[in-house]
């Protein structure tokens, strides 16, 4: 069962138009908000003031947004828009119309330009499950560690870089492995179509080089 300390409860309903009425968004995105989102609640605020936890160097607050859907799915662009607009780290709790839940989080970093904007790096989510099956570790001595625990818990096996020294490195290494895997598949497809033996051998050597780098 997913529970947060009572001291973190915020419970403020947010009109969904707040996330797009002052932004230049397409009519398609506005339609998705209208058709797919039924209710948005700012459910919890995880911070130094609401928990017995030290401040983080990168993370100042973690907001928990509970989004009730009108149907069975939510376009990822909705969460991306919210993540870009809110200058804090966010944990999304999605609730489908059939009562199943999903947790979602996007690993993001503060912009290097000095503004309050964030750079969205990689999104992760759990499977859809019954409410009683929801579970999330809230371990961490400071907000940075708490955020890392949340991201790793939701990402699970999607982060495949156990040798990394930090969450940032783990995400970057995982992304690099995925990029290499896509390049390898393209080369394998190209090699199958190539009729010249010399060119096939050249492509094979490149595949071997990328596979060694990937490992």
Describe the structure.
The protein is α+β, with helices and mostly antiparallel strands. A 6-stranded mixed sheet has the order 1-2-3-4-5-6, sandwiched between helices. The protein has helices at residues 27-36, 76-85, 143-155, 167-193, 197-214; strands spanning 9-13, 37-47, 61-69, 89-95, 101-110, 118-125. Helix content is 36%, strand content 23%.
Describe the SSE topology.
Elements: E1 9-13, H1 27-36, E2 37-47, E3 61-69, H2 76-85, E4 89-95, E5 101-110, E6 118-125, H3 143-155, H4 167-193, H5 197-214
Parallel strand pairs: 3-4
Antiparallel strand pairs: 1-2, 2-3, 4-5, 5-6
What labels describe this entry?
215 residues, alpha+beta, six-stranded mixed beta sheet, 6 strands
Brief rundown of the structure:
With 215 residues, this protein is α+β, with helices and mostly antiparallel strands. Helices cover 36% and strands 23% of the residues. The chain has helices at residues 27-36, 76-85, 143-155, 167-193, 197-214, and strands at 9-13, 37-47, 61-69, 89-95, 101-110, 118-125.
């Amino acid at each position: 069962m997913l529970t947060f300390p009572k001291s973190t409860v915020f419970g403020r309903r947010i009109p969904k138009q707040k996330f797009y009425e002052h932004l230049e968004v397409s009519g398609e995105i506005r339609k998705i908000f209208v058709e797919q989102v039924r209710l948005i609640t700012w459910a919890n605020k995880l911070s130094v003031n609401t928990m017995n936890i030290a401040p983080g160097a990168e993370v100042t607050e973690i907001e928990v947004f509970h989004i009730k859907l009108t149907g069975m799915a939510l376009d990822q662009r909705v969460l991306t828009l919210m993540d870009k607009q809110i200058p804090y780290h966010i944990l999304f709790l999605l609730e489908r119309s059939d009562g199943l839940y999903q947790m979602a989080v996007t690993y993001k970093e503060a912009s290097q330009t000095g503004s309050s904007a964030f750079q969205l790096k990689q999104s992760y989510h759990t499977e859809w499950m019954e409410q009683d099956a929801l579970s999330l570790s809230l371990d961490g001595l400071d907000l940075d560690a708490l955020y890392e625990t949340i991201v790793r818990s939701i990402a699970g096996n999607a982060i495949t870089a156990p040798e990394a020294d930090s969450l940032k490195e783990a995400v970057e290494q995982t992304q690099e492995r995925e990029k290499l895997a896509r390049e390898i598949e393209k080369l394998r497809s190209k090699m199958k179509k190539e009729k010249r033996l010399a060119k096939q051998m050249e492509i094979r050597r490149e595949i071997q080089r990328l596979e060694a780098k990937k490992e």
